[in-house]
Amino acid sequence: MKMTEKDSLLSDFELFDKMKEHEQVVFCNDPATGLRAIIAIHNTTLGPALGGCRMQPYNNVEEALEDVLRLSKGMTYKCAAADVDFGGGKAVIIGDPNKDKTPELFRAFGQFVNSLGGRFYTGTDMGTTMEDFVHMMKETTFVSGLPEEYGGGGDTSILTAAGVLFGIRATNQMLYGSDDLGGRTYAIQGLGKVGFKVASSLLETGAHIIVADINKDSLKGIEEKALTTSGTVTVVANDEIYSQAADMFVPCAFGGIINDNTIEQFMVKAIVGSANNQLLHESHGQLLQKKGILYAPDYIVNSGGLIQVADEIYGINHERVLKKTKQIYEAILGIFKEAENRGITTIESANEMCEKRIAMRGNLNNFYAASVKPKWKFTNS
Ligand code: NAD
């Protein structure tokens, strides 16, 4: 169907409507390398936008745009919750990570990131690796999540897993009045970079873990690990993991796994895991609450990796990063208690905490201050 002038004007307005909560959206096009990417900056009240760069063969531009808008907003909350001085942003490259990657494509993307002059910092996400960012860093300094040999913090999954364990401890404290990890049963979905580390640490405390993964090698690996610890492991089929009787469900694979179908099956007291966007809709937080299942908001539980990449921008210090990651324990406990006291869901409690923090910080510079630059603050000059 041929588009009329009126139609195209309408779609222009629709585009602005879609991004009404966002500060800026940048479409990046480089025919020479085949780069087609979108950068979305949601909110920079707390500092320059920070967010990973995802590479995925989206079916169309609209799908890519929806994804980048949703993910960049999520980063605003995640940065606020982790109390790092960064705002929310995200980038998506439209392409197949198994076929379309070239060093030149990432260098071209690096040039676009550089053109934003520090309003947006990016790092790895689904479909991109630290090696891709080594190409990008030749064009821009606004990258993070680099390998250690390039001055970066290296693999983020170590700190992400550490954060998940702090989240599990806080949840045990809330449920049982003791934050010991051992002697409990955890149903873990996904034994990848994060899940395997979480599962191994739980085995070392003597816990019983029930696991599912589509990757047979990971299952074999965790069974071998169990032999060297006081913990025990049971492997179940992928679709059986939701209905296991356990203290906790620990999702470490993919998003949207808390939905009408799974909530009906859950036989756990709590859900704490690394997967991003676990609630299919925010209303599923209410359904969990009704069923008496305590939910630890994902974007706080899995913020260890973000804390590391944010710290890397100042010059990585592993001790400092671990200290900040430990704060996940208190943050989760605080959110549980606030939600309980006010009869709201834990995700509502977490979102409110972030919104308050952003509003307070937004009011910080409303009087004239002398222009001495503190070392730990981004300034425009
Ligand atoms: P990963 O790709 O290394 O691991 C994912 C694992 O899930 C793999 O072992 C895969 O085989 C398994 N899996 C996939 N589909 C499955 C299914 N249907 N049933 C069971 N298992 C399945 O990813 P990761 O880095 O370990 O991240 C895990 C989750 O945590 C993701 O949602 C990611 O977005 C999130 N996360 C990761 C980090 C990080 O630092 N790596 C930080 C924040 C959030």
Task: State the end-to-end distance.
Answer: 50 Å
Question: Which range does the strand content fall in?
Answer: 15-25%
Mean pLDDT: 93
Radius of gyration: 21 Å
Biggest beta-sheet profile: 6 strands, parallel
Q: Pairing-aware structural class of the strands and helices?
A: alpha/beta
In total, the number of strands is 11
Number of helices: 13
Strand order of the largest sheet: 8-7-6-9-10-11
What ligand molecules are bound, each kind once?
A: nicotinamide-adenine-dinucleotide
Helix content: 40-55%
Low-confidence stretches: none
Shape: globular
Order of helices and strands: HEEEHEHEHHEHEHEEHEHEHHHH
Mind explaining what this structure looks like?
By secondary structure, the chain is an alpha/beta fold. The protein is built from 13 helices and eleven strands. The strands form two sheets. Strands 8-7-6-9-10-11 form a six-stranded parallel β-sheet, with helices on both faces. A five-stranded mixed β-sheet has the order 1-2-4-3-5, with helices on both faces. Helix 8 links the parallel strand 9 and strand 10. The longest helix has 25 residues. The mean pLDDT is 93. The site of nicotinamide-adenine-dinucleotide has 24 residues, from helix 5 and helix 6. Nicotinamide-adenine-dinucleotide (NAD) binds next to helix 5 and helix 6.
